[in-house]
């Protein structure tokens, strides 16, 4: 009977120790590897500043800090309560929210909490589909079903690469959902939210916007603020265009919503199991208040420059038009003769780290989803991204159908 590697190692403790030591050395070197030996174009990646990394406090994570501020279940947690207030104040200052909740570890958990707080099992949620960039935590077949929600797909305008706002507004009035989830993992430009928000509020539905990919662009004034446009609740992760450690932010406009959400989190979820993240999040929020506008502006400039440079290299690109404001993302439609996973693995061998997504313009096809936020964070400008575009273009070729494939 063949033995697995694990079985072989179980008989050789010395080999296990050496392998573990090697793994730890690779982990220690990973930061330098990403900064110096990789072209990171993955749209869901970023690095916090050295100050934010240093601010992480293991002592605050020695045990949980569950419950309301200054009335937590665990002893000697007033410092955590003070941090919660400071972080909330900074979130409110950045995004114009009336309240903020930052005790949950990630946006998937945050979305689940919002679903449970503002709906009942069997209620209807309208959300983006996977084919148009809907994230697992938003869409049919994903996290909403853990809350017992029925899910219908929001309409999408593939011609203009955005939510079909008029059709969505009409759909809301017809099917009368309890919740409407906006925002996607694939966003090359902003959606028109006004008609959707108006219809939802007309029938008493709650509107949620998952800003995970564009939070830093919102903070920097380069993407419309959903809360300012009438969205009730904004959820987000904190490590894409917002360059922090992985965590979550929930922010809203109405005090009653905050009370409902806090009651659920404090009674049914383990919040602040890692309160040591809060000082780091506070540092990133403060940095964003000071420098976020310049960073967001450069991200959008770099995306536009890269799209232009790729087109000049005869690479097919789906991106914001010249008269539109870009985000951190552009798409490269790929030929399916090489599967998506094989394509990104092949590019990885050349030091290019990029992800894939469903091509929102073509059913059952995929695209490379290219993000500029990581390399912008490393100080790259438009000229640098023109060179990066050339490096990527050298690894691709166009098919007769106009889609790209890995050149080899």
UniProtKB/TrEMBL annotation:
Residues 37-390 form the Serine hydroxymethyltransferase-like domain. Pfam families: SHMT. GO terms for molecular function: glycine hydroxymethyltransferase activity; methyltransferase activity; pyridoxal phosphate binding. SUPFAM superfamilies: PLP-dependent transferases. The keyword Ribonucleoprotein does not apply. Keywords: Methyltransferase, Pyridoxal phosphate, Transferase. Its cofactor is pyridoxal 5'-phosphate. GO terms for cellular component: cytoplasm. InterPro entries: PyrdxlP-dep_Trfase (IPR015424), PyrdxlP-dep_Trfase_major (IPR015421), PyrdxlP-dep_Trfase_small (IPR015422), Ser_HO-MeTrfase-like (IPR049943), SHMT-like_dom (IPR039429). One of its GO terms (biological process) is glycine biosynthetic process from serine. This is Glycine hydroxymethyltransferase. It comes from Brenneria nigrifluens DSM 30175 = ATCC 13028.
